[in-house]
């Protein structure tokens, strides 16, 4: 493995310097966390599957004109991506009641929401990723009003597209999380989709049985987590040729 300088390590991914200025290598780990990192485990092969699934979604979204940080997949666990300035906001798109909104509002889990709801969280592990309003985001300068217009517009378009795509393979897109970043190109800057889209960041339920095929299987100790991720990849037609397997990460320069 080549020696690369690590620039960031998160809960599920590691970023290394890319081969060219303005690029990074995104490495997908098998680590799984929940409840603000209070629960931690290893799901064998998760990083391989998330790499392929996220690649698939990013490429499909690029085809309909959604700008993303994705350039190409390098191998089983790594992607080449554009370096962006991450906006410290998580956008949660909700189509059905599940997770936090059920507890906060006393809703029945699984009920269809009157319309798609967007929620925002400030990215801070120390603060527990608190929910914030659009007014907080613009008042504190985390994103400008025009940037929020782009983020909201892209989020709704992504939701419409992915909901239809997943419904076609028998999956209900209950809710999911997105992150965005600023891509600087000389004196120009634009908002692009960043991070990943995978069963780690989406709630995906089988349309007929309601079976969970996402990270809730880990959160709720439902078991068969690897099989759930594999089933999503199988339905999308992208299960890795040799099946999920471990792949050692690149040697790191500190």
Describe the structure.
- The protein is of the alpha+beta class and 254 residues long.
- It folds into two domains: 3-83 and 225-245, Phosphorylase Kinase, domain 1 (2-Layer Sandwich); 86-206, 2-Layer Sandwich (D-amino Acid Aminotransferase, Chain A, domain 1).
- Helices cover 27% and strands 35% of the residues.
- It is built from six helices and 14 strands.
- It has a six-stranded mixed β-sheet. Strands 8, 9, 10, 11, 12 and 13 form a six-stranded antiparallel β-sheet that branches.
- Strand 11 (171-185) and strand 12 (188-194) form a beta hairpin.
- Helix 1 runs parallel beside helix 6.
Gross morphology is globular
How far apart the termini lie comes to 15 Å
**Number of H- or I-type helical stretches:** 6
Give the helix level as a range of percent. Answer: 25-40%
What structural class should be given to the helix and strand makeup?
alpha+beta
**Can you write the helix and strand succession as a string?**
EEEEEHEEEHEEHHEEEHHE
User: In CATH terms, what is the architecture of the largest domain?
Assistant: 2-Layer Sandwich
Query: Regarding CATH, which class of the largest domain?
Result: Alpha Beta
Within CATH, the superfamily of the largest domain carries the name ATP-grasp fold, B domain
Overall pLDDT confidence: 92
Low-pLDDT residue intervals, each spanning 5 or more residues: 249-254
Strand order of the largest sheet: 6-7-3-2-1-14
Radius of gyration: 18 Å
